[in-house]
Amino acid sequence: MTRWIEVLVGMADGPTTPVQGTVKPYWRTTEPETFYYGSYGEEPVEIPLATDGVRLTRWGRRARIESLDGTLLFLSDGETAWNFTGDPQRPRSTTLRRAQRFGPGRALVVTRPTADWVGDDHARPIGPVTDIDFLGRPCWSVKLAARESVAMPEPSLILVVDAESGAVVAEHSGDGRVGAEYTDIVVGTPMDASDFTWDGPVETDQESRQKTLQHDPHWRESGLAWFRDNVAAGPIEVSVDVELTPRFVEVTNEDTGEFTAPLGTPRQQTGWLHRRRHSPEPWAVRMAEAQFAWSTADFDWTFTLRVGTLDHAGLAAVQQQLHPGEPVIGTPDLVPPTRTAW
After folding, report:
1. Up-side HSE of residue 226: CA atoms within 13 Å toward CB?
2. Of 2, 1, 285, whose CA–CA distance to 166 is shortest?
3. What are the tens digits of pLDDT across the range 4-57?
4. Are 14 and 166 in contact (CB under 8 A)?
5. What is the pLDDT of residues 88-116, one digit of tens each?
6. What is the residue-wise DSSP string for 126-150?
7. Which helix (H) or strand (E) holds 74?
8. Percent of the chain topping pLDDT 70
9. H or E element at residue 181
10. Smallest Cα–Cα separation from 266: which of 241, 242, 248?
11. Which domains does the chain have, with CATH numbers?
12. Which is nearest to 62 in space by CA: 81, 48, 47?
């Protein structure tokens, strides 16, 4: 049986020999995905993986991505990343660690820093390593645990690693919703390090920030005015269905029936629900978001909505589903939670 340390050593520095093939990402869900990205105003340098596939070459920490017709899309020498999709003659450039992949497949393109493997974000195996055959090649499959998080829970991550080269050849979310994988693969074709670098003009992060700042300061207002004149003058409002089923429930006191529950789906948290025993004492659960509080004979309730708005009929519908037939008799006194200093 292959040990996890063998897999880790094998893929720690990227493929030991050039690995080439077609890579395709996939999505087996229609739910929207949310990605969080921070910057200082520059446009992100993205790792482009088209749904119909790209040609990916990996060697060590280097990466080269071309479209299926051979157009150069992305390069990395292991330290710097260049994206050619905006301007093929003057690509956007940044450090590789700041290159963003908004979707599955990053593990196939970027070799993680060695220090990341001592953390808790998809860095620890769940169960044993499995020896499998992938595209006719001996490979290892390992499931990695996600970092524990109530606010932004993630599924586990399954990596498939080529046993000979150490290349990550497939990446799947543990819930089966998204992933990316090679659909064909060639190992050992001679390459030159110059195939993974660019020495021409570039647009740096600083230049990207400057370009953003040079926009007309009134461009937002002028765009809105144009929209009101040419498309719709008034507000655009529609009624939509919002998923408010708890994702999980933390029972804080089984004897009194008190609980806290985030609402929505793993990809989109839509609100919070809290319940305690009915009490005249202040309740430290007040939030800045749209929050509704009420009391029944036995319990105090708060419902926080993070998307859209809720009218009286909507609130009544929520209450009827939570405690059918029990009337609302008042409102608890909500106060902000106590802040602690580290």
Report:
1. 6
2. 2
3. 999 999 999 999 999 999 999 999 987 777 777 778 888 999 999 999 999 999
4. yes
5. 999 999 999 999 999 999 999 999 988 88
6. SS--EEEEETTEEEEEEEEPPPP-S
7. strand 72-76
8. 96
9. strand 178-187
10. 248
11. 4-213 (2.50.20.10), 250-322 (no CATH)
12. 81
Whole-angstrom CA distances from 268 to 27, 105, 147, 311 are 16, 21, 18, 21
Render pLDDT for 136-178 as a digit per residue (tens, 0 to 9).
Answer: 999 999 999 987 765 567 889 999 999 999 999 999 999 999 9
Alpha-helical runs (H) found in the chain? 4-11, 106-109, 205-213, 219-230, 312-322
User: What are the structure tokens assigned to 251, written together?
Assistant: 């029972």
The C-alpha torsion from 155 through 161 and 167 to 169, rounded to 10°, is -70
Token pair listed for 33: 């995905």
Non-local CB neighbours of 321 within 8 Å, separated by 6+ positions: none
Q: State the residue for tokens 């979310």.
A: 173
Q: Residue 236 corresponds to which tokens in the numbers above?
A: 């655009």
Segment (H or E) for 333: none
String of DSSP letters for 153-179: ----EEEEEETTT--EEEEEETTSSEE
